[in-house]
Fold this protein.
Amino acid sequence: MKLQTHKQLHVVSGRATQTLTEDICHELGVTMGPVAIEDFANGEVHVKYGESIRGCDVFIVQTHTAWEGRSINDAIMEQLVLVDAAKRASAKRITVVAPFYGYARQDRKASGREPISARLIADLFHGAGAKRMVSVDLHSGQIQGFFNGPVDHLTAMPVLIDYLRDLGEQDLVIVSPDAGRVKVAERYTHQLHADLAIVHKRRSTNEMHHVEAKEIVGEVEGRTCVVIDDMIDTGGTIVAAAELLAENGAQRIIAATTHPVFSDPAIDRLKNSVIDTVICTDTVPLPPEKQIDKIEVLSVAPIIARAISAVFEDTSVSEIFGGNNLA
């Protein structure tokens, strides 16, 4: 007996990422799969797929963020339950698409008696039944090794670079807000033919989330400076860097980030800062109260859609980015 099999693509979304998933499906030319997600009275989540996914290549999209009164932990748990339900519904392969990967900053033990929570999250998804993971601009590349399966590490760099290139600025300086972001900043300088500057900073040992920017390495006076970081959480790092750039004579300051987490008091800090424009992507949805005039949101849906298409068709994902997503 010979059976001719046909692969079927099925994309579903958790409740934290509905709009982005709809945009991804539009790029792919497919309809988002129906799934009912409800909460029990005690807060437990229940999911049920609205149609058969037996033998399907299922992509479950959920960014790890707080939304509508729920926490980042709710988003992660909801995606885990979606994975488990897909496994028990006989999906052929399950891929977790987490545009923003939760707990990514806890990727190592900085001191004794601390967890490595980024590894724990990877273990949970593998244990639930995920065979593959897709994420955008992980906080550190080593997280790819935490998941026991293929990880496609995408980057929003093409989207951000296109925006910066369209600005037409001739005297551009790419600024790394700390030593850890230098390699990423260097990739931007190569693409934009710009110079590089580095902010030397020190975190306060007494006050949490307090950052002191100390000095600038590089020439920024009279120039347009673009501060590059993977995420803006409370805004302390980016605002401290911007203030130091302004003190050193920067003419215009732009902040560019992939993940606009914007925990309090980030919006107030950005609104009152010397930063002219904040460029970010839609890996994390922005509620209306966080949408201020300074913020420009760009879509990563085309990039994620191309990656999903490549995974489904078993072609190279890294070729989409010319290898710039690997480090």
Summary: The chain has eight helices and 14 strands.
